[in-house]
Structures
1.
Amino acid sequence: MRWGLSGVYVFIGVVHLVATDAMLPLMPDWVPEPRLVIQATGLCELAGALGLLLPATRKAAAIGLALYAVCVYPANVKHAVEHIHIAGIPDSWWYHGPRLAFQPVFVWAALWAGGLIDWPFRRER
């Protein structure tokens, strides 16, 4: 789970950095400096992905990635509700519905991969 989640966040982080302008329409109006925020979140995703793999930073990275997943939810909602077209991303509820429903799973996965929770898979002590 840790390696898979790290891979997902490396991919998403790179997308944030190389396609910043394409993601600008997703940012809610109340977000200050949206371009900078997208780039900063890309760097945070990369740092979180690496941190999740290192025992010394695993718990902090897990908390950061879980908080990140909560914080980007408004942009995901805006994308779905306002039907914002982004090249390469479907604009259908077949895409948006599962994406929005799956966001809490990303929060759980980060916390589980970081060893902060063990629900529902109990680890042996």
2.
Amino acid sequence: MPVYDLPRAELESYLPDIGEPADFDAFWAKTLAETRAFDLNLTVTPVDTGLRLVDVFDVEFAGFGGHPIKAWLTRPAAAVAGAGPLPAVVEYNGYGGGRGLPHEHLGWASAGYVSLYMDTRGQGSQWGSGGDTPDPVGSGPAVPGFLTRGLLDPADHFYRRVFTDAVRAVEAVRAVDGVDPTRVAVTGGSQGGGITLAVAGLVPGLLAAMPDVPFGSHFRRAVDVADTTPYTEITQYLSVHRGHADAAFRTLSYLDGVSFARRASAPALFSVALMDPICPPSTVYAAYNHYGALGGEPAKQLEVYPFNEHEGGAGHQFARQLHWLAELAGLAGLAGGGATPGHLEGNAR
């Protein structure tokens, strides 16, 4: 589609006031404290996949409400690894997808990292190879999809649970034997990019954040501009529930990627596509331009794809990430990563 959002010069200086709630930090501190009252219950189980150059593990840990969350963990095989703890990358998937199959997530392990690919609760049936994590929490009336589940109260919203799961995923990988807990990065595209921003704003001490064409920022503008799902789920809901707009946007203000981005302290590599009809460029720039404002102004970069839609940079962006993250992780110039030989175990906390 043609460029439809703000001119690029305006995008580069776009710093909207999104109406952040005064108790944003208190809301999330309470949410995470309630979740951490549950044991992490981390299990890391070896899986025979037929892959010989990477080791694969089926991971489960306690997320929001103590609910079990699944993930795949892959890492360079002990037989081909060197010595020393490895940096790790936690990856979050796009809207409606699940963790799929482990051989679909080999890029980061091939580059010398421990890779944890988190399943998204309640998703995994719209595309890809499926998911394995139910969401045992219900909601009130909602449009098909996930954006309007719990739309009238931030405590009930679907993404409160998902973002909390994602924070616990970082805690889980940091508890895995052979991982350097000081070198953990987070990444994802679209919905995964939005989850990445949430984690970057909630978890201190991350090595890096790499949100690609992130979803879930500047909700008010996204609903006004986007004419395709998922944002139109909100439009459809409000077209039926005509008196719920104030409550809906109040709930979304606790989930907005711009607010999380403001609090982030890790170096960041973003991507944006200027013809993206799903995540309008202005919503991505809103998060990028605000990124780190309350987190010490960390280094940040934005890769711009002027002629792409929601696919963004795709494989080209991953190639960019590989080199950028290697510099931060201390892997640049190495022929391969290092890992401690032997059995991988989880240290539950």
